[in-house]
From TrEMBL:
It is a multi-pass membrane protein. One of its GO terms (cellular component) is membrane. InterPro entries: Palmitoyltrfase_DHHC, PFA4/ZDH16/20/ERF2-like. Keywords: Acyltransferase, Membrane, Transferase, Transmembrane, Transmembrane helix. This is Palmitoyltransferase. It is found in: Membrane. The chain crosses the membrane at residues 56-80, 86-105, 184-207, 227-248. Pfam families: DHHC. Its EC number is 2.3.1.225.
Length: 320
């Protein structure tokens, strides 16, 4: 049903499906098709690997990995391995590297997970008839991707798709943050904030320790190189900590209020039944509170991933 005020405002931006005899062949003209086999236009199939081919997003995602790996290099080879205290190096190394792996895994899950894309070009006569609409019911289609637009869906000009509960498009993960991958994005921001804070703490300890002794005894690198590496690491950690901590807090606030960033910026009045606080958290992270909420590998099936990889060699589809 699209009788709400929210949908009446949307009617000014998205054309309604006029009648059963309306021209629905324009779906083939929508940009951003899926390359590959017979399932083109759909992203929900088991044989589909979601990936946005956006040059800016791919550069930003590569930079994210480079900066995390740079932090790993400085922490491990400049600060921890040369340290004389074995247990200090072991405990901090295990903690930092574990958090870094979780951060990169969360980044991958966010980037390669379908955020909730509406099937492209599904505004067909056959699909309309299958909905069995009651007299007077009105539904709308997105004129950009020729898809029936569900409630709370918004069109992304970069993904070239309508995304359910779209929060925003993030170039650092080269994907939209939406209904199906918001959980992984929240974990990504949390783990990046944690490793940034940890790196800052280790850098401070390293500076304090090396001031009391000769710099040559603190690192296998020369004093000048070590200082430059540590300064760059501290600047990176401060920027990442500030950005991801703010983003993490914003995401948690949005989840607890069941309101996406786009809905907040547009000041859209809710026409849906809001899931407040814990109900919203359970809906996004799945199930009651547990350590599984912090696990980015939850729901990842190795066999399915291998099938996707094998299918890609045989000409599988990519979502673009």
């Amino acid at each position: 049903m699209q009788s709400s005020n929210h949908r009446l405002r949307d009617m000014e931006q998205h054309h309604p499906l006029l009648s059963a005899g309306a021209d629905v062949e324009t779906g083939s003209l929508a940009a951003g098709v899926m390359v590959g086999g017979p399932h083109a236009g759909h992203t929900g199939g088991n044989r589909t690997l979601w990936f946005i081919q956006d040059s800016c997003g791919m550069v930003c995602a590569t930079m994210t990995w480079f900066l995390v790996l740079y932090a790993e290099f400085v922490v491990n080879f400049v600060m921890l391995l040369p340290a004389k205290n074995f247990w200090y190096s072991l405990l901090n190394g295990a903690t930092f590297n574990s958090l870094a792996v979780l951060a990169l895994a969360s980044h991958l899950r966010t980037m390669l997970t379908d955020p909730g894309a509406v099937p492209k070009g599904n505004a067909t006569k056959e699909y309309m008839e299958s909905l069995q609409l009651k007299p007077g019911e009105v539904i709308y289609k997105c004129p950009k991707c020729c898809s029936i637009k569900p409630e709370r869906a918004h069109h992304c000009s970069i993904c070239k798709r309508c995304i359910r509960k779209m929060d925003h498009h993030c170039p650092w993960v080269n994907n939209c943050v939406g209904e199906k991958n918001q959980r992984f994005f929240v974990l990504f921001t949390m783990y990046i904030a944690l490793i940034s804070a940890h790196a800052l703490g280790l850098s401070g300890m390293h500076f304090f320790t090396c001031i009391k002794v000769q710099w040559n005894e603190c690192s296998a690198f020369s004093p000048g190189v070590s200082v430059l590496l540590l300064i760059f690491l501290c600047l990176e950690a401060i920027l990442f900590l500030t950005f991801t901590a703010v983003m993490f807090g914003t995401q948690i606030h949005s989840i607890c209020n069941d309101e996406t960033e786009i809905e907040r910026l547009k000041n859209e009045k809710p026409t849906w039944e809001r899931r407040m606080r814990w109900d919203g958290m359970k809906a996004v992270f799945g199930g009651p509170p547990s350590l599984l909420w912090c696990n980015p590998f939850t729901g990842l099936r190795l066999r399915r991933l291998m099938l996707l990889t094998h299918g890609r060699r045989a000409g599988s589809e990519f979502s673009v």
